[in-house]
């Protein structure tokens, strides 16, 4: 029994280190970021000499970086708008946009596959706290809960981040109760 506990502890430490290392590799492309200000210009080229294609008037609007050139980032948004933004207009904090079909609302759960604690409408911006497997823990207004990744634009399908090393224990606990 002592050996099993020791192996489990070693596995959890290794698992946590690998996830932490993955989070620190922040220069992968593509990757998600968000706007830092209430007004951020998307340009057709990587210079202020290029015309503005559109302006985002929302702080924390999620964007996907698909290219880099010096201090400029080529980004695409949920609607497919693509262009260049200066690096200092972006931040690495993770936000997502709720995406549902037919004006339905996405369900927020107290835990993955748990009880519904709320619903959130299409196109709302949410703070993504952590993700693993098919679920993300989000914050929105008074709600903090779990939502299926299929209902969020701003996270990759197989992406896991901000998971504590003891998340496996939490998952086991959720399955038991």
Chain-wise SSE layout:
Layout: H1 2-24, E1 31-35, E2 40-43, E3 52-56, E4 62-69, E5 72-76, E6 82-86, E7 90-91, E8 95-98, E9 106-109, E10 116-120, E11 125-132, E12 135-140, E13 143-148, E14 152-153, H2 167-176
Antiparallel strand pairs: 1-4, 1-7, 2-3, 4-5, 5-6, 8-11, 8-14, 9-10, 11-12, 12-13
What does this structure look like?
With 177 residues, this protein is of the alpha+beta class. The chain folds into two domains: 31-91, Roll (SH3 type barrels), CATH 2.30.30; 96-176, SH3 Domains (SH3 type barrels). It has helices spanning 2-24, 167-176, and strands at residues 31-35, 40-43, 52-56, 62-69, 72-76, 82-86, 90-91, 95-98, 106-109, 116-120, 125-132, 135-140, 143-148, 152-153. The strands form four sheets. A five-stranded antiparallel β-sheet has the order 6-5-4-1-7, with no helix packed on it. A five-stranded antiparallel β-sheet has the order 13-12-11-8-14, with no helix packed on it. Strands 2-3 form a two-stranded antiparallel sheet. Strand 9 and strand 10 (116-120) form a beta hairpin. The longest helix is centred in the first third of the chain and has 23 residues, at 2-24. The radius of gyration is 19 Å and the shape is elongated. The two termini are 24 Å apart. The relative contact order is 0.15. Residues 17-25 have low confidence and may be disordered.
Brief sketch in words of this structure:
The protein has helices spanning 2-24, 167-176, and strands at 31-35, 40-43, 52-56, 62-69, 72-76, 82-86, 90-91, 95-98, 106-109, 116-120, 125-132, 135-140, 143-148, 152-153. It has 177 residues and is an alpha+beta fold.
